[in-house]
Amino acid sequence: MNESDRKNEPLKTSGGKKLTITGIVFSIIVTAGFVWAAIQWHNLWRKPDQASAQDLQLNEQHAFLNLQTIAEAQKKYKETDWDRDGKKTFAKYFIHLWTSVSLSSDPISVNLIHRKLAFASETSRAIDGYYFVDLHDWDVPEGEGLRSLNHEKEWAVLATSTDYGQTGILSLLVDNSGSIFVNPAKYIPIVYPENPVSKGWIKIDTIQQLQEYQKTIMYP
Q1: Within this chain, do residues 18 and 57 fall inside the same structural domain, yes or no?
Q2: Do the beta carbons of residue 52 and residue 129 sit within 8 Å?
Q3: Which whole-number Å values give the CA distances from 117 to 11, 48, 62, 204, 219, in the listed order?
Q4: Domain range enclosing 105
Q5: What's the rounded Cα separation, in Å, for the pair 84 and 70?
Q6: Residue 154, C-beta contacts closer than 8 angstroms, at least 6 positions apart
Q7: Same domain membership, residue 86 and residue 29
Q8: C-beta of residue 93 within 8 angstroms of C-beta of residue 197
């Protein structure tokens, strides 16, 4: 009997069944496959590991710097009539700071911000745990409702975490003044408050001020 025949020679079990080495190896492989699949299924639904306080703080700092980038780009954007409609306005959508659109819907290269930031307007395209939202309505004094921002002189963008407590605690707000405000509240309306400070927002001028403010916050 040669070596190949010996490997496939039936082995008798206590129950009288016959097994081959090839069959045993196949069974092991199949079992391992089921175990691997079970592990992957478990990992799919397992809650992500808790981010450290330092991770959250760094995400917030990156969001702050990105809002500064947007604010500087808006100033430069207003210097040119990009859509050639005879008016120099702020970008209504911050993606236009990367590529604007003419009156005939043709793309106009602007490149005042980088492409990755320009597309970070939804959770799936977030940068460092934050995405950015154009604000179009101003929350005027109580009882007067909302009014639309006039992009000839106004604009505002909100930076919000993709998962509160996992990617960041703070929401960050920037407007046409270039001022940036932060707010640790979990739920933030998608409107620009008439007076951010009176609505619980804290004005932060520098990354160093933000770092000092972060020391006052209890992170998960």
Answers
A1: no
A2: no
A3: 65, 25, 11, 21, 26
A4: 53-214
A5: 22
A6: 90, 138, 175, 176
A7: no
A8: no
Residue 134 CA to residue 136 CA, distance in Å, equals 6
Do residues 182 and 156 both lie within one domain?
A: yes
pLDDT tens column, 169-208: 999 999 999 999 999 999 999 999 988 999 999 999 999 9
Q: In sequence order, which ranges of 78-179 are alpha helices (DSSP H)? A: 115-118
Helix (DSSP H) and strand (DSSP E) numbers for the chain:
5, 12
In a domain, 131, yes or no: yes
- Judge whether 10 lies within some domain: yes
Do 83 and 148 fall within a single domain? yes
Cα–Cα distance for residue pair 159/172, rounded to 1 Å? 5
Strand 202-204 to strand 146-148: parallel, antiparallel, or no bridges (unpaired)?
Answer: unpaired
CB 210 within 8 A of CB 204: yes
Please check whether residue 220 lies inside any domain of the structure.
Answer: no
For the beta sheet containing 180-183, the strands, ordered from the edge strand earlier in sequence to the opposite edge, are: 130-134, 156-161, 171-175, 180-183, 202-204
- Residue 68's closest CA among 188, 175, 149? 175
Residues 78 and 19 in one domain: no
> Within a domain: residue 162?
yes
Number of domains into which the chain is organized: 2
pLDDT tens, 134-166?
999 988 766 677 889 999 999 999 999 999 999
Q: Same domain, yes or no, for 189 and 80? A: yes
Name the nearest CA neighbour of 162 among 86, 55, 35.
Answer: 55
